[in-house]
């Protein structure tokens, strides 16, 4: 199929008159994965659009200040304007105002990296993060990051407290994504079922170097008034320090923080 035929096919399922909007948003999402810039030719391949269409859209985004040429010739990247837009979007979420004071206290008490996420479809999204006040470890996680459910502590929280049939559906639809990032990554659905049962019993999840060697993570659920888990809190630190400090010492303030936020969301008992 030619580029033109591919473009026409993709437009059939979209509202009339919005082709350029959808295409522009598609390019933004792709460029978000290339902080150092993406060549026009490769961007065209990823978007499945012809080069002239991509170039025209990029010029429009550039004129609005959202895209700029990258150092490499013929490449483009997003601008810092997205940081401002993203921060405004996050600040409009009441949950940040509710959770922030509790998360800041947890950060001071433990001295470790504190992460706060929400669930969106098949990902956990980091919406708040506090760097450690002691130690030198800085994790690669960043606000706005989409984290896979299968290999992150907070992701496993969402699977454990979600719909019973969801795990099987997730495993079937994400086969290409579920890969062994380290030797500890769980890639067997049977093993994941066992893991999730334990998480429900203990109301906590662990990332035992499943996403990054040398880094461990402890996560707990935040319940709302309907006993649903739409948010999760975690502490990240080096595996060596976790062994030194001990899980129990970190788990207690983590659970107390989650309980305090849950109460503010209307959960009683």
UniProtKB/TrEMBL annotation:
<dbReference type="InterPro" id="IPR014757">
    <property type="entry name" value="Tscrpt_reg_IclR_C"/>
</dbReference>
<dbReference type="Pfam" id="PF01614">
    <property type="entry name" value="IclR_C"/>
</dbReference>
<keyword id="KW-0804">Transcription</keyword>
<dbReference type="InterPro" id="IPR005471">
    <property type="entry name" value="Tscrpt_reg_IclR_N"/>
</dbReference>
<feature type="domain" description="IclR-ED">
    <location>
        <begin position="81"/>
        <end position="267"/>
    </location>
</feature>
<feature type="domain" description="HTH iclR-type">
    <location>
        <begin position="18"/>
        <end position="80"/>
    </location>
</feature>
<keyword id="KW-0805">Transcription regulation</keyword>
<dbReference type="InterPro" id="IPR036390">
    <property type="entry name" value="WH_DNA-bd_sf"/>
</dbReference>
<protein>
    <submittedName>
        <fullName>IclR family transcriptional regulator</fullName>
    </submittedName>
</protein>
<keyword id="KW-0238">DNA-binding</keyword>
<dbReference type="InterPro" id="IPR029016">
    <property type="entry name" value="GAF-like_dom_sf"/>
</dbReference>
<dbReference type="InterPro" id="IPR050707">
    <property type="entry name" value="HTH_MetabolicPath_Reg"/>
</dbReference>
<dbReference type="Pfam" id="PF09339">
    <property type="entry name" value="HTH_IclR"/>
</dbReference>
<dbReference type="InterPro" id="IPR036388">
    <property type="entry name" value="WH-like_DNA-bd_sf"/>
</dbReference>
